[in-house]
Amino acid sequence: MVASRLEKIVNYAILTIFALAVVLPVGWLLLAALSPQANAGVDLTGLRPRNFVDAWVQSDFGRHLLNSLIICLGAVTLTTVASSLAAYGLTVLRAPGSKFLFPLFLAGIMIPLEGILVPLYYQMRSLGLTSSLVGLMIAHTGLGVSFGVFWMRATLLAVPRELVESAELDGAGRMRTLLSIIVPVVRPAIITMVLLMFMWTWNDYFLAFVMINDPEKMPVTVALGSFSTRYTQQLNLMSAAAVLVCVPVLVLYAFFQRQFIQGVLSGALKG
Amino acid sequence: MHGKRRGRFVGWLYILPALLLYGGVVLYPAIQSVNISLYSWDGVSTPTWVGLGNYTDFLSDPELRIAIEHIGVLVVFYAFVPILLGLLSASLLARHARRGYAVYRWVIFLPQVLTSVVVAVLWKQLYGPDGPINTALEAVGLGALTKDWLGDFTWALPALGLVGTWTTLGLCMVLFVSGSAAIPTSLYDAARVDGAGAVREFFAVTLPALRPQIAVALVLTVTGALRTFDLVWLTTRGGPGTSTITPSLLLYVKAFSIGDVGAAAAIGVVMAVVCLLLALVIVRVSEQD
């Protein structure tokens, strides 16, 4: 099918309008981050990359970056392992009651954070887990497990039964079968899940904002939130800090576009 | 046979870690939410039983009513506008491989991967009194329209709504474009043979085929509008006055700054019920023929 010239022009015009709606604001943030003026007046003649260094130092970015990395790596690892094991139990091992347990996990995808936040906070506080990286890690894991089980169950159901059976015939134990037969086959699905979980955990603001009151324990998002209310007179540094916060996810997004978009679209029911 | 049965029970050991984490962080607190919502509690002293008192607040508390009305406005911006624009663009995009689409898609989808804090910082500056939006208006001779957008009683809420449109538009468009790429060309050919124009074709072929995608988009965007917190908290804190308050914002304030924990839990319970019903209804409707 050959597209007419008009169709082609219309296509690119639409795509360009939508793209510009994103590029102009984001581009403006970048220029503001490089602005030599405190009011972030865009000045193309005097770009000042040093803003990033100043923003890093003044917002104590290194500390918050480390907090975010610890929370994300911990939560993503725990969620991936726990969800994969559970999905294996629900599908391949056919644990009794799976028909009842799976919908129970699934319900969590639709419960919004607001529905559990108040008691969760008081419960964590009584365990001494507020303002704690471990506490936030556990909270993220518990919230992520629903989606993880949903995702990994669908993935494992697509694994051919014969593959598992032949491993059993070879005398492989359950854990061996999971680790050396199944995991290599479903690696692409695991990678997508890990990327999505990393993005959701890294980007979270509300949960961390409620759970963490100690400034030293704040992840980058909460730190940026409080930085942005303290440095209202230095818009250029605020913009630079904002750019720093989204760099890690943007880098991953640049390399794994397909996984991010497919993951968000197919896992779209997560609330 | 015996060994086989035992083998199946071993499956529970594999499920256990996930179930404990999920139970402790989601299930138990969800039940506790309902429990707390039946008490008047300041978070410190002994709670007093009030029955459904915190729920009748939804009828009597003027702030809560205003917050719910705001959700109506936000749903238009977060859900209806992006879905309509997304459908329009998906139907206009000719159905063949587009060179460079991957690059466009990367850009258009970008707001979905930006953290809400960065979105808030960005738009707060764009809307600022000396921000680029006012500068642009002055440059084209519309200086009379300039204002402190987020400090304006009339304009703050639609301005924040527009940010919602900005963040969900790419999601809707990519969802609908990928959905319409899967529609068999034969359906379009059949419609053409029947003499359908572009508009008829859209309503007869494209729209029905995209029903599952529209359902997903509705669930995501309406839930997003309903749960608006980060953007409002980081830009206006609900102000000026109460002109941008939302249920989530009231939940936060009641639970963690003015010590009306029972009422906060009740807001959370109602939001959870609304989200669950919304997902069930929309998915059910989309599956019907």
What does this 3D model show about the protein?
The complex is a heterodimer of chains A (271) and B (289). Chain A has a domain at 58-219 and 246-266: MetI-like fold, CATH 1.10.3720.10. With 271 residues, chain A is an all-alpha fold. The relative contact order of chain A is 0.14. In chain A, 76% of the residues lie in helices and 0% in strands. Chain A has 13 helices and no strands. In chain A, helix 1 crosses helix 12 and helix 6 (133-157) runs antiparallel to helix 9 (187-203). Chain A starts with a helix and ends in a 5-residue tail after the last helix. Chain B is mainly α and 289 residues long. Chain B has one domain: MetI-like fold. Helix content of chain B is 72%, strand content 1%. Chain B has 13 helices and two strands, in the order αββαααααααααααα. Chain B has helices at 2-36, 53-60, 62-92, 101-109, 116-126, 132-139, 156-180, 185-193, 198-209, 211-226, 230-235, 247-256, 261-287; strands spanning 39-40, 48-49. Chain B has a two-stranded antiparallel ribbon with strand order 1-2. In chain B, helix 3 runs parallel beside helix 7 (156-180) and helix 12 (247-256) runs antiparallel to helix 13 (261-287). The two termini of chain B are 46 Å apart. Chains A and B meet through helix 1, helix 3, helix 4, helix 5 and helix 6 of A and helix 1, helix 4, helix 5, helix 7 and helix 10 of B.
Defining traits:
heterodimer, A: 271 residues, mainly alpha, MetI-like fold, 13 helices, B: 289 residues, 2 strands, 1% strand
Secondary structure elements and pairings:
The complex is a heterodimer of chains A (271) and B (289).
Chain A: H1 5-33, H2 50-58, H3 61-90, H4 98-110, H5 114-126, H6 133-157, H7 161-169, H8 174-185, H9 187-203, H10 206-211, H11 220-230, H12 235-255, H13 257-266
Helix pairs in contact in A: 1-12, 2-12, 3-6, 3-9, 4-6, 6-9, 7-8, 9-13, 11-12
Chain B: H1 2-36, E1 39-40, E2 48-49, H2 53-60, H3 62-92, H4 101-109, H5 116-126, H6 132-139, H7 156-180, H8 185-193, H9 198-209, H10 211-226, H11 230-235, H12 247-256, H13 261-287
Helix pairs in contact in B: 1-13, 3-7, 3-10, 7-10, 8-9, 10-13, 12-13
